[in-house]
Specification:
Elements (H helix, E strand, L loop, with lengths): L3 H5 L2 H13 L9 E5 L8 H14 L4 E5 L6 H5 L3 H9 L15 H8 L2 H4 L3 E2 L5 E3 L8 H6 L4 H5 L1 H10 L6 E5 L6 H10 L1 E6 L3 H21 L4 E7 L7 H13 L13 H8 L12 H23 L3
Parallel strand pairs: 1-5, 1-6, 2-4, 2-5, 6-7
Antiparallel strand pairs: 3-4
Helix pairs in contact: 3-15, 10-11
């Protein structure tokens, strides 16, 4: 299912489009660059790509915050080896406030009482450079809760308000948001807040079609709401260039997404999977294999390209 229909395909949102075109407020332009990792499909390396792009950006001198909205299972926290500690906080009811709280009506009251500590308390150090706001089980019901908000702008802009008001003042250079692998109200919040999309893809017909549909949907959103959501980076991963099919899909991706394609594809590497299972990225492997070393190089070049493209969008 493509999310475009949910954005502008109802009378409510068509009416909102007209109102919004008259009342549109300029987005607060901050020094903090933002991008959201999304494709309307799971299992395409989205979380792995987000973790490695964040670490690669940090390796090149950027202060990075990663926000996990991809689901209550906490895959990014697991990837960075901090899930066990956070899970204990959850089980002991100490993980409050959490990422789901920032979407709630009570968030403004919480911040008035706790001040900046309400936001900094959400953030965990990963040990690899980037900071992380991990996923929380409260995300499980968040989509439905957001769906109960009648006003469309308020429903879709809650994450943007949180970033503008509470995260940007913390001084991060880049915020990366890992979104669910399906179109829902959480996903829309992430796209609205980031305005730039990173699309991890694996070689395959379905992934190619989904990436193509996503680009069309982003254009429709921009046309109907007076905002621009850009396809900032298409990142092929788990690529085996020894296979003819993989090489053909790389050529297809390069032709279709010439202005967004990553400089290098990320090769398939068992080392990356093993590293993730042990709670670290490929940048922490002491003696990387040839494929892991190539993967690190690909993530570094991709992060550099992403930084350039996000910066161009903020000029």
């Amino acid at each position: 299912m493509h999310f475009a229909a949910n954005w502008y395909g109802t009378p409510e949102l068509l009416g909102y489009r007209l109102h919004y075109s008259k009342c549109y407020r300029l987005k607060f332009m901050s020094k903090t660059l933002r991008a959201a990792s999304f494709l309307d499909k799971g299992g395409v390396g989205k979380t792995t790509s987000t973790a490695h792009l964040a670490t690669a950006l940090n390796e090149q001198g950027s202060e990075v915050l990663v926000i996990d909205l991809a689901g209550k299972q906490g895959d990014l926290a697991k990837h960075f080896g901090v899930w066990s500690e956070y899970q204990e906080e959850i089980e002991e009811d100490d993980a409050w406030p959490n990422i789901s709280t920032v979407f709630d009506d009570s968030w403004s009251t919480i911040t008035k009482k706790l001040g900046e500590a309400a936001t900094t308390g959400l953030i965990h150090e990963t040990g690899e450079g980037p900071d992380l706001i991990p996923a929380h089980p409260g995300l499980d019901t968040l989509d439905a809760e957001l769906g109960n908000i009648d006003d469309a702008e308020e429903r879709y802009s809650r994450l943007e308000d949180f970033l503008d008001t509470h995260v940007d003042p913390l001084g991060y250079d880049v915020v990366l948001i890992d979104l669910p692998g399906l179109s829902n109200n959480i996903c829309y919040n992430g796209l609205w807040a980031a305005r730039n999309v990173v699309v991890p893809v694996e070689p395959g017909t379905f992934e190619d079609e989904q990436a193509d549909a996503l680009r069309e949907d982003l254009e429709k959103i921009g046309n109907n709401f007076g905002i621009e959501i850009s396809l900032a980076l298409v990142l092929p991963n788990k690529v085996d260039t020894r296979r003819t099919l993989d090489r053909e899909y790389l050529e297809t991706f390069d032709e279709k997404f010439r202005n967004a394609i990553a400089p290098e594809p990320v090769p398939y590497s068992q080392d990356i999977r093993y590293a993730a299972e042990s709670g670290r990225t490929a940048f922490e492997i002491e003696e990387p294999s040839t494929t892991a070393d190539r993967a690190r190089s690909a993530y570094l070049s991709a992060s550099s390209a992403l930084l350039d493209r996000l910066g161009d969008g903020h000029e």
